[in-house]
Amino acid sequence: MLLRKYGFNYKKRIRRKYKSNSIIKQTLLIIMLLSLISNFCISRLYLIREPIAIKSYDLEAIANFHIHNDVLVAIEDYAIEEEKDFYDVLVNTMIHYDFSALDEDIIDLNKVKKVKQNNEYEALVGLYQMILEDIRFFPIAYNLNSQYEEYYYGDTWLASRSYGGERLHYGTDIMDSNNTRGYLPIVSMTDGVVENIGWLEKGGYRIGVRAPSGAYFYYAHLYTYTGDINQGDTIKAGELLGFMGDSGYGEEGTIGMFDVHLHMGISVPLKHQSEEYWVNPYWILRYIEDNKINFWY
């Protein structure tokens, strides 16, 4: 009886000791795992920035489109070389540099931190995609009869305008160097569908083309249209729309109120906004300027 008693007790002590050792080992294992997870998370903080909610994005800064054309080219080259998505690189770059990438000398794509992808991030990718995806050509055709560019333009975004009351300028004015109405041919920058055509008091004779990805391309102050273009017609990128003029600022047919130019506007539809949201076309035009349709004129 004593042997059985002591034997039983001895076995219990062994089981208790084994159980105690097992608990210690499990505890140590959990501590090690937690430590590894903690170190991993800390290291990731240097690689991934916290996402910015779409409601917190500075839409005004996005609309300014302060992305130097050389930076856009660099992003395009970098995305190809690193086999990354162009829009992912673009969005990460713009967030990293607070939506202002005008100084190409300080932009270092290798230092751009990756943003966690969520619904808001995807919305921003979609916004830039809507703006840029369908653009193929500069809106002024290249003149095969001339060795020189016969137009000029600057960044006239948000410049003051007074006709019809004090207001801001939501576009880029491309001027005819010779100030000759009906001379410079205007072509569509994108494929799309003619959404608006005809007279506007401020825009004169204009055409609005809705591109496949959703952006709206607005060509204003035309002198004449070309061919038989109607609302609902399908337009191809590079197709001739009309000729640069100085129409507008009055009743239909008004001309001569300002120098001959094309008002180029780009807008995008945004949720929770009843009107189109206009985007600065200037750096986009600089980016695409070498892509022109050839014309004899």
TrEMBL record:
Top-rank taxon: Bacteria
- InterPro entries referenced in this protein's UniProt entry, alphabetically: Cell_wall_metabolism_enzyme, Dup_hybrid_motif, M23ase_b-sheet_dom
TM spans (from-to): none
Concerning CDD domains, the annotation shows:
M23_peptidase
Query: What terms describe the molecular function in GO for this protein?
Result: metalloendopeptidase activity
- Residue ranges of every copy of the M23ase beta-sheet core domain listed in the record: 168-267
Write down the Gene3D superfamilies for this protein, in alphabetical order: Glucose Permease (Domain IIA)
Q: What is this protein called?
A: Peptidase M23-like protein
Q: Which organism is it from?
A: Natranaerovirga hydrolytica
